[in-house]
Amino acid sequence: MSLSKKKILIGMTGGIACYKIPYLVRALKKENAEVKIIMTKAATQFITPLTMETVSENSVAVDMFESKSYIATRHIDLSEWADVNLIAPATANCIGKIASGISDDLLTTVICATITDTIFSPAMNVHMWENKITQRNITLLKEVGYKFIEPTEGDMACNHYGVGRMPEPEDLYNELLNYFLKNKQSLSKKKSLKNKKILITAGPTREQIDPVRFISNNSSGKMGYALAEIALELGAEVTLISGPTKEIASPKIKLIQIKTTDDLLKAVKKEYKKTDCLIMAAAPADFTPVQTEKQKIKKIIKRWSFL
């Protein structure tokens, strides 16, 4: 199976095993996977963000609040971007925080916000691994759906021997490959929407004021397009009615492009008669002009006086 275009978010926490991750990223990139990386501040003590940016060909996120280019919803954007999250190395501290619902840095906040599968690859001293609190946290996370790549046994940087070593990069690569393979097989076996016709709306609408100006919103259409792709994978015959957006739909999806809210209504009414399910993920404009001017409205500057 190819990893081409698979989106993998790697979270790196503070452990000596950080040195293995560039090799993993290089292997993923060779298969044309897309890789983004979040590093905790402790991780940057073991390997530099510059190294990870070089091998991933993406900027590395470290701080929750970047001083140079702060974007308030970056943690949400990252949480929705990936097909899978891999935390490697995953320290006992990181595992404990996520198990306790603590979100005090960018990585733990992203994991708290994501609905994507998260895989932990623990790496720590053998006594930390065997600690009852650590094992309790791991058991709790497994019970609620988090996945784990078990550590291996061997010599450690602290001169101890035992279980707690993070697997080698090629082993992590194979675990990710198996993850996507199992998901693909699972979807192929669960064609639960086979012979069903699904109608989905997505994106914004535009209400023209004149040839230059229009009323709209910032809807990206990502939700509707993602739903359409999943419905397609589950065997449905999918029709997607979309407003103006940069998203690209699979060629197997019937795409109907619309512009105005009235266009959206007409398209839905036409397609609804032959559909089994309608999912309305579009974001129609809240207002529409009484009339649309055929020529650009001239700018009128008014002087206001205040008492």
Describe, in plain words, how this protein is organized in 3D.
- With 307 residues, the protein is an alpha/beta fold.
- It has 2 domains: 7-188, 3-Layer(aba) Sandwich (Rossmann fold), CATH 3.40.50.1950; 197-280, Rossmann fold, CATH 3.40.50.10300.
- It contains 10 helices and 14 strands.
- It has helices at residues 21-30, 49-56, 74-81, 92-99, 106-113, 126-130, 132-143, 169-189, 222-233, 261-272; strands at residues 7-12, 34-39, 60-61, 84-90, 118-122, 147-148, 152-155, 161-165, 197-202, 207-208, 214-215, 237-242, 254-257, 277-280.
- A hairpin with a 5-residue loop joins strand 10 and strand 11.
- Helix 1 (21-30) packs parallel to helix 2 (49-56) and helix 4 crosses helix 7 (132-143).
- The longest helix has 21 residues, at 169-189.
Question: What would the average pLDDT be, to the nearest integer?
Answer: 90
Query: Which percent band covers the strand fraction?
Result: 15-25%
Q: Can you write the helix and strand succession as a string?
A: EHEHEHEHHEHHEEEHEEEHEEHE
Q: Which regions contain 5 or more consecutive residues with pLDDT less than 50?
A: none
How many structural domains does the protein architecture include?
A: 2
Strands in their spatial order, largest beta sheet: 3-2-1-4-5-6
Structural class: alpha/beta
Oligomer state of the chains in this structure: single chain
